[in-house]
Write a structure and sequence with these properties.
This protein is of the alpha/beta class and 268 residues long. It has 2 domains: 2-167, UDP N-Acetylglucosamine Acyltransferase, domain 1; 176-267, ACP-like (Non-ribosomal Peptide Synthetase Peptidyl Carrier Protein, Chain A, Orthogonal Bundle). The chain contains 8 helices and 15 strands. The strands form 3 sheets. The chain has a 6-stranded mixed beta sheet. The model has no long low-confidence stretch (mean pLDDT 88).
Length: 268
């Protein structure tokens, strides 16, 4: 059982990388992976009635990686932490399969009494996001950077803010993917422009939006939360599922670059 969990954890980090040199480098120097593997060891020790050793390994984990992951927390397979320093998962917390924490995340108590969250599969928490209290968070939920989740959430939503509020819900449109398979580049650009005006406040500064309009830096200056919101909107608008590992800074350089990315994803 533990071997299967570790195998899935390692695959979640290494699966998108190419070349043995890169993979070996990650195994040796990826502190987030080390935090997860040390958690697995502490959990295994506790399950085999070696609680003092489990506590010791948990302490070593916090010293070496900066992550405090309780061996009493239940975390599913494919768990990823990219930057572990400041990450906390409390003792009664439950996290599902294939979940991702970025940096400085807390899954913990709100008022005490072991009131910690139960989180579903394919959860994503941006930098500094905190999930607190006896709440239930559904599957495929994304939490924006520095947001604080204090209430239960349904499946397939994106939330942001303090306290976090739903900013994106799924659409019930099973035919959208088929319709988008033959969509023109011009139509993609028009639909993307509408999404930008509804999700990025700085888009209002631009009288017209075209493929040369910049999204980063001196363009619209979109930040990480706005990118997360925009990606969720694109997934719903075009019926796509976009993995964070597929995203690169170059995709958001201009509207044209983002149109290229959407075209490529639709054509798959």
């Amino acid at each position: 059982m533990m071997f299967d969990l570790v195998k899935a954890d390692v695959a979640a980090i290494l699966g998108t990388e190419r070349g043995w040199a890169v993979k070996v480098g990650l195994l040796l120097f990826h502190s987030g992976m080390h935090a997860v593997l040390l958690y697995r060891l502490s959990r295994w020790l506790r399950a085999h009635r070696l609680a003092p050793l489990a506590v010791l390994v948990g302490y070593v984990n916090s010293v070496l990686t900066g992550a405090q992951l309780s061996p009493r927390a239940s975390i599913g397979r494919g768990f990823v932490i990219y930057h572990p320093f400041g990450t906390v998962v409390g003792s009664s917390a439950v996290i599902g399969d294939f979940c991702t924490l970025i940096h400085g995340n807390v899954v913990g108590q709100l008022v005490g009494g072991a009131d910690r969250p139960v989180i579903g599969d394919h959860f994503y928490a941006g930098t500094g996001a905190k999930m607190l209290g006896r709440i239930t968070i559904g599957h495929n939920v994304r939490v924006g950077a520095n947001s604080v989740v204090l209430h239960s959430l349904p499946d397939d939503v994106t939330v942001s803010g303090i306290p976090a509020r739903i900013i994106m819900r799924p659409r019930d449109d099973s035919s959208r993917r088929a319709a988008d398979s033959a969509v023109s580049r011009e139509t993609i650009g028009e639909r993307l422009a509408r999404l930008l005006r509804s999700t990025v406040p700085e888009a209002a500064r631009f009288e017209t939006l075209n493929e040369s309009t910049g999204l980063l830096g001196e363009g619209m200056g979109v930040d990480s939360v706005e990118i997360l919101t925009l990606v969720s909107a694109i997934e719903e608008e075009f019926g796509l599922t976009i993995d964070e590992a597929e995203l690169e800074v170059s995709h958001f350089k201009t509207i044209g670059a983002l149109v290229n990315f959407i075209e490529e994803r639709i054509s798959r």
